[in-house]
Amino acid sequence: MAAPNAPAGTYRAPDTGPLPGAAPTTRIELRGVSKSFDGDPVVRDLTFEVMQGEIFGFIGPSGSGKTTTIRLITGVYHPTEGTVRLMGADPTHTSRQVQERFGYMPQHFVLYPTLTVRENLYFSAALYGMGVVERRRRVDQLLKFVELWDARNKVTVNISGGMQRRVQLAASLLHDPPLLFTDEPTAGIDPVLRGKFWEEFRRLRDQGRTIFVTTQYVGESEYCDRIGVIREGRIIALDTPMNLRRIAMGGDVVDVESDQFSPAAIYSISRLPFVQHVQPVTHREIRVHVQEAGAAVPLLLDAMNDNQCEVQRIEEYRPSFDEVFIELMKRDEAANPAPEGAQNA
Ligand code: ADP
Ligand code: MG
């Protein structure tokens, strides 16, 4: 947080465009970034980009290196190896121009417990050097945005944890940043409020902003445009939610139900060129692993027809993100077994 004696009157409305010299749409760029503390690597060889206008989810278990990565991107830490670019600049030497373009909602953000919700926001706005009129306008606008208008005069210590997180979100948006970092914003809050946070992120994204968000809840993958999966400091997968499913399951999955399956029918399906394998589920249901479900369904119907099997139901099976992540973690564990004697958290 800025020092309480930050100079007043320095607030400027942000320019949402890229800095001169930056690629037009790249907001964040990491190349081979590693960070060690006392020789112990905490994150290793991180290479990825975050583009303008996307919700980039950084998902991994506790202790996997999410907060460290945010601190590297925002210039709190110097990388031990590799390069980080934040809006085209080195974040450890940022100008005020860069600092004004991002907001940061830390995992553990301090609010003044004895101030009201609105006073907390006024206080933060003053730190940004916002004038009185601008401050009032912006704070009121954000109180409505995060649906805290009715709670604006409550003392912060007396509101729920979920509401406190929303005050923190509003505080990180005061200067209207085009890029927002938010570290586990939904941790420990109930599913309804979690849904609201994601609605807010999507609204911000739809305004052209970029959101870098971390979470331990893998089910929240579906709200992100792209996801980086981090395990023990390494990115083990990075793609859209749909493609992560494909990577984890080795393609798409189609369930076929019929009460007329015959061994010959199952055999002929398993021989189709786009079918990877067939897994019997019950005597009247099979699960077919294919390259791409959309193209496979009509061809599977033809094959069933050729074998005189009437189909009762055929549909793509979408594994939950819990299943997807378990699969991704299992694959990574098999490919990169923990060194002997290492503790698994
Ligand atoms: P996450 O945010 O995913 O829970 P962190 O990035 O906070 O993970 O931490 C990753 C690992 O790095 C943890 O084992 C943590 O103890 C270690 N770590 C984080 N910051 C420091 C630090 N300043 N000094 C030493 N170790 C640290
Ligand atoms: Mg963390």
Low-pLDDT sequence parts: 1-16
Q: Quick one: how many beta strands?
A: 13
N/C terminus separation = 32 Å
Distinct helical segment count: 10
Explained architecture:
Mean pLDDT is 88; it is low at 1-16. Helix 3 runs parallel beside helix 5 and helix 7 crosses helix 10. The protein has a 6-stranded mixed β-sheet with strand order 5-6-7-3-8-9, with helices on both faces. The chain has a 4-stranded antiparallel β-sheet with strand order 11-12-10-13. Strands 2-1-4 form a 3-stranded antiparallel β-sheet, with helices on one face. It has helices at 66-73, 96-99, 117-127, 132-145, 161-173, 191-206, 241-249, 263-270, 293-306, 321-335, and strands at residues 26-37, 40-51, 55-59, 81-86, 102-105, 179-183, 210-215, 226-231, 234-239, 252-257, 275-282, 285-290, 313-316. Helices cover 32% and strands 25% of the residues. The chain is of the alpha/beta class and 345 residues long. The chain contains 10 helices and 13 strands. Strand 11 (275-282) and strand 12 (285-290) form a beta hairpin. The structure holds adenosine-5'-diphosphate and magnesium ion. Magnesium ion binds at residues 66-67, 107, 183-184.
